[in-house]
Recover the amino acids of this structure.
């Protein structure tokens, strides 16, 4: 074959491939998302790096798995009709206080009736009287009838033990994995008798050592007394968690499970 016919054939192939690529992209853009997520996170503050990293990671997840994520920084918009637009509610370190009465009522109904899934991180169990706001009794029961007591201000590294390897959110995780430099909370009691514990932290592995311990210390659990698929993941203080493949696997699995996918 001479060079000219060869080049002409190559150009035809390139044009065809480009046309196919554009057609596939156009088709992908017209496919509606399979579900919508609403994520709430505090504006600024000490958890801002975690929230920023989560936003970037979630954007990639949404593109890959065909869902959308909207963000709010307070609960003013939350009511029954607002929550009805979403399949999953992600609490990215937003605390369980300073919610409007309308928002608390709508959220409680959605969780109890199972019309929305829920993933809560870290600050979601800051339960008690904070910043002049009273305890939210329903949320305390939802989290296993617990109250925040203290945290490890020096931060320590600990080993998380997977307790229920059959649960969909634990898919692909090893029996144990390390979480570095976390400010592990303690609560008034272990939530174990009131929730289904999926993972706990082995306090004997804390490095450096600390006297701030609970004994039995669940860190990932789900409350099976409500209809909504829900999971609380204690870890969530710093952005470096998104460099930990075990953490991102847990987050990924939790999104698909809690959204009913």
């Amino acid at each position: 074959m001479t060079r000219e016919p060869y080049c002409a054939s190559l150009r035809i192939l390139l044009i065809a491939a480009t046309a196919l690529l554009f057609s596939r992209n156009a088709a992908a853009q017209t496919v509606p998302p399979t579900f919508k997520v609403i994520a709430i996170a505090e504006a600024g503050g000490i958890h801002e790096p975690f929230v920023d990293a989560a936003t970037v990671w979630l954007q990639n997840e949404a593109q890959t798995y065909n869902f959308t994520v909207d963000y709010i920084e307070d609960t003013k918009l939350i009511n029954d009709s607002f929550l009805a637009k979403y399949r999953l509610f992600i609490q990215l370190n937003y605390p369980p206080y300073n919610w409007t009465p309308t928002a608390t009522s709508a959220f409680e109904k959605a969780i109890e009736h199972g019309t929305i899934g829920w993933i809560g991180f870290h600050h979601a169990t800051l339960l008690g009287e904070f910043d002049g706001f009273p305890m939210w009794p329903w949320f305390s029961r939802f989290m296993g009838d617990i109250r925040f007591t203290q945290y490890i201000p020096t931060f320590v590294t600990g080993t998380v033990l997977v307790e229920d390897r059959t649960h969909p959110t634990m898919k692909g995780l090893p029996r144990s994995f390390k979480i570095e430099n976390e400010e592990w909370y303690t609560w008034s009691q272990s939530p174990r008798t009131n929730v289904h514990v999926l993972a706990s932290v082995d306090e004997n592995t804390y490095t450096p050592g600390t006297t701030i311990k609970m004994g039995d210390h669940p860190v990932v659990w789900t409350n099976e007394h409500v209809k909504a698929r829900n999971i609380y993941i204690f870890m969530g203080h710093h952005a470096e968690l998104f460099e930990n493949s075990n953490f991102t696997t847990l987050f990924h699995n939790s999104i698909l499970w809690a959204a009913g996918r």
